[in-house]
Design a protein that fits this description.
Layout (H helix, E strand, L loop, with lengths): L11 H8 L2 H4 L8 H7 L7 E5 L5 H8 L4 E6 L2 H10 L5 E5 L12 E7 L8 H11 E12 L1 H4 L7 E2 L5 E3 L9 E7 L2 E7 L2 H9 L3 E7 L22 E8 L6
Parallel strand pairs: 1-2, 1-4, 2-3, 4-5
Antiparallel strand pairs: 5-11, 6-7, 8-9, 10-11
C-alpha cells in the first residue's frame, strides 16, 4: 500500500543508528522488556496473528516458530520491512507497508493482535482499539508494549543533569496534556505522541476488552551490569498490557 506518510526509520542515518542497537542485532533476547513480555504472550498454536509495527519481524518469526497458522506484519518503514523479508523463512508470513491507523482488515481476521513499542508513534489510541476490535475474533488476545506514560510525558526523554554531567532525576511534566512530543532518540529528533495510563487502560475497557495483565517491566537481572542499566531502575521505561476481546452479548 502506498501512502504519503514517511517513517523516521526510513531515514538512512537514523536507520543505521537503530541497526546498531542490541535489540536490532540480537533480536528478542537483546530487548530489555522481552523476558517480561514473553511470559504474557498467549498460545500461538494454530492462531492467525497480526503484528502492528512489526519492524524487523522478530515477533512474526517467533509466532510462527511457536505454531501460528499465519502471521501478518504491518509497518510503515520500507527499510524495516526489507530486513523482515530477508530474515523470515516462513511462507505463511506476509508483510504489508501501511500506517497502523489505516489498517482495515475484515471482521474475525485474527485470533491474536500484537504490537511492540509502536503505538507511541500513533496519535489516537482510541482509533487503534477500534480497528483492532474490528478485525479480532471474540475472545481474541490483544497484547502490546509501549513507552511508559511517565517516560513520554515531558517530551525530551532525557535525564536532568548537574553541572558535572551526573544524573539528577528524570523530568515528568505536562502529564495530562496528551499529544505530540519532540523527543531525542539515538541523537535524532523523533515525533512521538504522549498518552496517559488512563487513555491506554480505559480505552481498552470502553472499547470492548477485558484486562488480563498490566506490567511495568524492570530490566532483567543479567542486564543490570550493562552500562547505564542501573539507571533504568529509577523510572519506568515500558508498559505492557494484555487484554482479551469480550464476546458480544446476544439479546
Amino acid at each position: 500500500m502506498e501512502n504519503n506518510l514517511r517513517s523516521k526509520y526510513d531515514d538512512p542515518v537514523f536507520f543505521e543508528k537503530y541497526s546498531q542497537m542490541s535489540r536490532s542485532q540480537q533480536g528478542l533476547e537483546g530487548a530489555g522488556e522481552w523476558e517480561t513480555l514473553q511470559k504474557l504472550l498467549p498460545d500461538f498454536q494454530g492462531k492467525r496473528v497480526l503484528d502492528l509495527g512489526c519492524g524487523y519481524g522478530w515477533h512474526c518469526i517467533y509466532a510462527m516458530e511457536h505454531g501460528a497458522a499465519a502471521v501478518t506484519g504491518v509497518d510503515l518503514s520500507e527499510r524495516m520491512l526489507a530486513v523482515a523479508q530477508e530474515k523470515t523463512r516462513f511462507s505463511e508470513v506476509r508483510y504489508l507497508r501501511m500506517p497502523i491507523e489505516e489498517t482495515d482488515f475484515p471482521p474475525d481476521s485474527f485470533d491474536i493482535v500484537f504490537s511492540s513499542l509502536a503505538f507511541h508513534y500513533v496519535r489516537s489510541f482510541e482509533e487503534i482499539v477500534r480497528r483492532v476490535s474490528a478485525c479480532l475474533t471474540e475472545g481474541g488476545h490483544f497484547i502490546f508494549s509501549v513507552e511508559h506514560p511517565v517516560f513520554t510525558a515531558y517530551g525530551t526523554q532525557d535525564w536532568i543533569y548537574d553541572e558535572e554531567g551526573e544524573i539528577l532525576h528524570f523530568p515528568v511534566d505536562r502529564y495530562f496534556l496528551e499529544g505530540k512530543r519532540e523527543a531525542r532518540f539515538l541523537g535524532e529528533e523523533v515525533v512521538k505522541y504522549h498518552k496517559t495510563l488512563t487513555t491506554y487502560l480505559s480505552g481498552l475497557l470502553h472499547g470492548g476488552f477485558e484486562l488480563l495483565d498490566v506490567v511495568e517491566p524492570q530490566p532483567p537481572e543479567p542486564m543490570l551490569s550493562l552500562p547505564g542499566m542501573q539507571d533504568e531502575m529509577r523510572r519506568p521505561l515500558f508498559l505492557i498490557v494484555s487484554a482479551r476481546k469480550k464476546p458480544v452479548l446476544k439479546k
